Amino acid sequence: MGAHLDHLVVAARTLAEGRAWLEGRLGVPLASGGEHETFGTYNALLSLGGTSYLEVIAVNPSAPSPARARWFGLDTPEMRERLEDGPALIHWVARMPELDAAQDYPEGEVLELSRGENRWALTVPPDGSLPQGGVAPSLIAWHTPAPPTRLPASGVTLATLRLGTPQPAELRAALDRLGFVGEVEVYEAPQPELGAQLDTPGGVVLL
After folding, report:
1. Contact 10, 83 (CB under 8 A)
2. Structural domain tally of the chain?
3. Calpha distance 63→60 (Å, rounded)
4. For residue range 107-119, what is the model confidence (pLDDT) as tens digits?
């Protein structure tokens, strides 16, 4: 099926907080993204080189409440409590040429979504939860050119994405079924956890 890393998801209580946190850690500016009307969120973006990027996302206080649960668990008390300690890397998204072959992927229904001129299909659980606590990817297929094709070069690249889970064999099997290709390290951990090693103009940064 040929899946590759599309983007990393960092969540924050506010977009301004998340953007300032990332820019302070990475030493480079993020680009403005846009609004997601379906979920009442908005974002800012950073190229990770090639066809991958990083997204910081937050609830848009100016948007009406969505008709369904927000994605990435942003409506849950657990996520709100987690973000009280500051922005966090909470999830990742794998890109596929199309999602017809992913109809049986157990981590969400396929939704057709948009943001400005961007159009894509994405797997989203009906309750908005993070697949396997965030370590199993959501799947995306772009109908329009993906954001990295329009983002300025940042000098930041992803060296390794680390995925800790109580069921590492299950996660590895899921990634194998997707034909995932990329720098991902799966290891056993008491609870789901994500970490990313980024190479930046100022040196290595861990999220």
Report:
1. no
2. 1
3. 5
4. 778 899 988 888 9
Identify the CATH number of the domain in which residue 146 sits: 3.10.180.10
Domain residues for 74? 4-153
Nearest-5° angle of CA 14, CA 15, CA 20? 105
Q: Is the pLDDT reported for residue 1 higher than 80?
A: no
The DSSP symbol for 114 reads E
User: Could you tell me which residues come within 8 angstroms of residue 24 by beta carbon, excluding any fewer than 6 positions away?
Assistant: none
Highest mean pLDDT among 15-19, 98-102, 123-127, 142-146: 15-19
What are the start-end ranges of the E strands in 12-150? 31-36, 41-47, 53-59, 88-95, 109-115, 118-124, 138-142
Q: Specify the amino acid at residue 185.
A: E
Give the pLDDT band (50/70/90) at residue 177: confident
Strand locations in 37-183 (E): 41-47, 53-59, 88-95, 109-115, 118-124, 138-142, 157-165
Which residue, 6, 3, 97, is CA-closest to 45? 6
